[in-house]
């Protein structure tokens, strides 16, 4: 039995770099003092020290600590559970469940990791199928009683099946749900499905024929919540507690929303990417099947182990081996199971799901064979640390198919400040934008939400500890910096050209200003402020950087390039991120 939890306080040394990166990180981060065997303690130490390194290390730079990585990402609380040989070999907790209340994260702290709920929800649906109470490949309206889906011409005469709902191949809208906060009226499940106030999202409806393509839909998952209630005659959370969570031994988990008052002292408080407390401490997710689970890292590891053992035919606490195989089998895409995603790593398969409610992020990843896995939960909107931990665990426990790279130790040089100033700016390749900026006389590389320190191996060549690519800045014949080329050991990632800002006329800016609405019903406002246009999606104004008279990107969101759709008048905006499109329609 594990001894009583003890915590130490890790003092965070000053980290050179942008104040914005660590300004709101706590000065003292509590770290659980664990008492495992010397061999396991050594493995924990290796995971902690390798976190953050992808391919490179810097000569003379000491090993990193988990509190330092948490400070870097402004993460308040972190919980990890590691599975090896079909057993939880260790768990460890770091930081604050609630910083203001000085409540550290413990093994009893519940997190609200959003869409991971969909994996447990799939178990709930599949158990009904196993009991003969529904057919996964039959029209969903066969089982819906108090609400039915309205087919229209978009579905092209095809019927939606339960398996399609679980695999996001039903062709439905409503990607996710923003949650509800103090002062919000709370909708019923029927309100959510019909897109009626006080629900914050649109009616769940077809946007393409079912069975034709992957289209992530939390709205489709909510139909399964209604289905469970109609088939069982029970409240969703009561059914899930009795039929799924209790048999699995997930004794610290629940789907009840809002959370029970008696458990408030055990709930983690959510924080945004800047380290600010979420309004109301956490979102209320009445969309329980899609994102309403409260759980712990150890409980999710228990679910993962049961899935692995069931796949081997060695356990059937909830599902038979045959039904588990159906869950983990690909659908129209080999990477999509029922309630899970499937990663094929050089012939070795892993089942996984990530998550993101406001103020919370998480991920579990488990192997099909060998009994390996890890669960990482945080109470922050900044999820960069999650993949760092997964990579580190995979290295230490030598997961098959996962990269087993020992970081290459590099010597570094320090270019002059005037040269660093020439490098600053934004660089564009397709729909990917990165920024190089100076702070405290150090150069930093911003890609998406991740801000990484730049280390130079030559005056124009650099690398980042959090990335596997090497970068080289190149110039034209006059010495003007033109772009960045990026390469890994096996792949040429191409060139990113330095952007040249485009200034719009006041008339152009006024033409674009106005209200827009996203597919899920979220409102976006564009307004003019002097000689600038800003976009506000609810989190404050974001400066719009124009690269043509109609195309722009956001300084706070480098993941997409936006383009106004206009003929004689502006009709909307198309956001292109890699191979995904998002459309915002103008409100007339």
TrEMBL record:
Pfam families for the chain: Beta-lactamase
Domain Beta-lactamase-related: 65-382
Descriptive protein name: CubicO group peptidase (Beta-lactamase class C family)
Organism the protein comes from: Taibaiella chishuiensis
């Amino acid at each position: 039995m594990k001894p009583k939890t003890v915590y130490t306080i890790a003092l965070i040394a000053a980290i050179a770099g942008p104040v914005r990166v660590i300004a709101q990180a706590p000065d003292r981060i509590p770290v659980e003092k664990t008492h495992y065997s010397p061999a396991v303690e050594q493995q924990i130490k290796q995971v902690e020290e390798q976190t953050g390194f992808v391919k490179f290390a810097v000569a003379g730079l000491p090993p990193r600590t988990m509190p330092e990585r948490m400070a870097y990402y402004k993460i308040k609380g972190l919980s990890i559970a590691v599975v090896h040989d079909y057993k939880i070999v260790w768990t460890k907790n770091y930081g604050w469940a609630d910083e203001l209340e000085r409540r550290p994260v413990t093994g009893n702290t519940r997190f609200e990791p959003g869409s991971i709920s969909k994996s447990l929800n799939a178990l709930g649906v599949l158990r009904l199928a196993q009991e003969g109470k529904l057919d996964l490949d039959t029209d969903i309206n066969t089982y819906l009683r108090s609400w039915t889906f309205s087919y229209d011409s978009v579905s092209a005469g095809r019927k939606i099946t339960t398996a399609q709902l679980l695999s996001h191949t039903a062709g439905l809208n409503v990607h996710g749900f923003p949650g509800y906060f103090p002062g919000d009226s709370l909708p019923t499940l029927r309100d959510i499905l019909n897109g009626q106030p006080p629900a914050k999202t649109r009616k769940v409806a077809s946007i393409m024929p079912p069975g034709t393509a992957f289209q992530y839909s939390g709205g489709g998952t909510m139909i399964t919540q209604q289905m469970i209630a109609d088939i069982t005659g029970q409240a969703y959370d009561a059914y899930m507690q009795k039929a799924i969570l209790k048999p699995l031994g997930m004794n610290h988990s629940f789907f009840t929303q809002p959370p029970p008052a008696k458990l408030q002292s055990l709930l983690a408080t959510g924080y945004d990417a800047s380290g600010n407390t979420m309004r109301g401490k956490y979102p209320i997710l009445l969309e329980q099947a899609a994102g309403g689970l409260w759980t712990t890292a150890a409980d999710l590891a228990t679910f993962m182990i049961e899935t692995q053992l069931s796949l081997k035919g060695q356990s059937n606490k909830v599902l038979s081996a045959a039904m588990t195989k159906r869950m983990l089998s690909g659908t129209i895409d080999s990477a999509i199971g029922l309630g899970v995603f499937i990663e094929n790593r050089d012939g070795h398969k892993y089942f996984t799901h990530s998550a993101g409610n406001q103020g919370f992020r998480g991920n579990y990843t488990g192997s099909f064979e060998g009994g390996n896995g890890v669960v990482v939960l945080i109470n922050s909107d900044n999820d960069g640390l999650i993949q760092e931990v997964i990579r580190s665990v995979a290295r230490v426990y030598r997961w098959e198919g996962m990269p087993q790279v020992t970081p290459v130790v590099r010597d570094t040089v320090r270019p002059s400040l005037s040269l660093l100033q020439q490098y600053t700016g934004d660089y564009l390749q397709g729909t990917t934008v990165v920024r190089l900026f100076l702070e405290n006389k150090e150069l930093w590389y911003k890609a998406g939400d991740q801000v990484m320190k730049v280390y130079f191996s030559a005056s124009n060549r650099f690398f980042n500890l959090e990335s596997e690519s090497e970068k080289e800045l190149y110039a034209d014949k006059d010495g003007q910096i033109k772009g960045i080329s990026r390469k890994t050991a096996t792949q040429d990632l191409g060139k990113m050209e330095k952007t040249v800002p485009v200034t719009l006329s006041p008339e152009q800016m006024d033409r674009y200003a106005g209200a827009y609405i996203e597919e899920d019903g979220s409102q976006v406002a564009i307004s003019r402020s002097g000689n600038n246009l800003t976009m506000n999606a609810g989190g404050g104004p974001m400066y719009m950087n124009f690269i043509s008279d109609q195309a722009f990107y956001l300084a706070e969101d480098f993941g997409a390039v936006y383009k106004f759709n206009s003929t004689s008048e502006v009709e909307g905006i198309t956001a292109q991120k890699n191979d995904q499109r998002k459309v915002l329609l103008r409100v007339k």
